[in-house]
Amino acid sequence: MTLTLHRDAALRGARLAVCLAFLIPGMAIGVWTSRIPALKEALALGDGQLSVALLAIAAGALAGMQLVGRLVDRLGSARVTVPLAFAQAAVLPLPALMPSLVSLAASLAVFGAVHGMLDVAMNARAVEVERAWGGPLMSSFHAVFSIGGFLGAALGGLSAHAGVGPLPAFAAVGVLLAALAALIARRLAGGTRGGRDRTADAVPEPLPGRRRGLGGGLGGVLLLGLLGFCCMVGEGASADWGSVYLREHLGSSPGFAAAAYAAFSIAMTAGRLTGDRLAARFGPVALVRCCGTLAGVGLASALLIGDPLAGVIGFGCFGAGLSCIVPQVFSAAGNRDPARAGQALARVASLGYLGFLTGPVLIGAVAELLDLPRALAIPALLALFVALAAPAVRPSRP
Length: 398
Prior knowledge:
Blueprint: H1 2-34, H2 36-42, H3 47-75, H4 77-91, H5 94-97, H6 101-133, H7 138-161, H8 166-189, E1 192-193, E2 196-197, H9 217-249, H10 254-257, H11 259-282, H12 284-305, H13 308-323, H14 325-336, H15 341-369, H16 372-375, H17 377-388
Helix pairs in contact: 1-4, 1-6, 1-7, 1-8, 3-4, 3-6, 3-15, 4-6, 4-8, 6-14, 6-15, 7-8, 7-11, 7-14, 9-11, 9-13, 9-14, 9-15, 9-17, 11-12, 11-13, 12-13, 12-17, 14-15
C-alpha cells in the first residue's frame, strides 16, 4: 500500500513536471514572436533581412532535433530535458543583445537549436510518463505548450504596451522560465538511475490494447512523420494565410479577418484539453480518423461557402480537428520502440517542423499560380489523407 501511494505520488509529480516543461518553450516562443517588430525596428532590418534571421531559427531547430535523439536514448529523457529547460531560459535574451543582422541570425540559430532539442527531449519524457500512467496524457501536455504560447505573447504584448524594450522583457521572462526549470528539475529527474527514471518503469506494460501499428521500424516512423508533416502544413497555412483569405478574398474587415486564426488557435487549445479523454474512450485510431475528417471537411466547406462567418467557423473546425492528431502521432512514435524513442521522435518532429516551415510557402506558390481558395484546399486534402492513414497511430504490442 505504501509503495503504491509512493509510486502514484511520483507519477503525479512527474506529470506536473512534464506540464511545466512544455510551458517553458511555449512561453519562450510566445514572448519572442511578440517582440519581433521591436527588434526589426531597432536593427533597421528590411523584410528580406528579417526573413533571413527567422530562417536561422528553423535551421537551428532542425539541426538540434537531429543531434538530440541519440542523446536522449543514451542518457534518458529526464537528464536531457532539465539542462535544456535551463538553456531555453538562458538563450532567450540573446537576440536582444545582438547589434547586427549576422549576430542576430547566429543568436537565433542557437535559440532554435535549444528549442528543437528541448522539443524532442520533453516529448520523449512525456511518452515515458504517459506509459507509466497507463492512459493517454499527450494531448494535455501539448495543450500546455499552446497555453504557454498565449502567456508568452501576452507578456510580450504588455511589455510593448508599457514601453519596455525587448531586452528587459526577455530577461524578465527568462528569469521566470529559469525558476520553472528549477521547480521541475527535482520531480522530472529525481530517482534516475542509469539514465532512466524509475517512474517510467513503475508500470512497464504498455497502454491497454496495444497492437503493432501500420508499418514497423523506420518505415512506420517515417509514416508517422508524414502525418505530422501534413498537420503542420495546415498549422503554418492557418497562421499565415487564414486572415489574408478572409480579408482579401471574402472582403471582411481587418478585425474580423484576424478572427480566423484566433478561432483556429482557441479551437486547437480546447481540443487538446479534451483529447486525452477522447483517446481513452475511443482509442487513438478512431480519434485521429474523426479529427482528420473534421479538419478536412470543415475547412473545405468554408472554402466552398465563401462567406466570412463560414470562414471563421471553418478555421475553427480545422483547428479542433488538427488539435489531437500530432499528440497521438508523437505518442505512437515514442512507443513504437521505447529504447529508441528519442531518435524516432527526432525524425517525426523534424518532418513536422519542416511542414510548418514549407506549408505557407507552398500555399503562397499555389495561390500565385491559381488562387488562394484553391491553395487552401491543399491542407484540407492533407487532413483527409491523415484520416485515411489513421491506423498508423495504432499502438504497438511488444
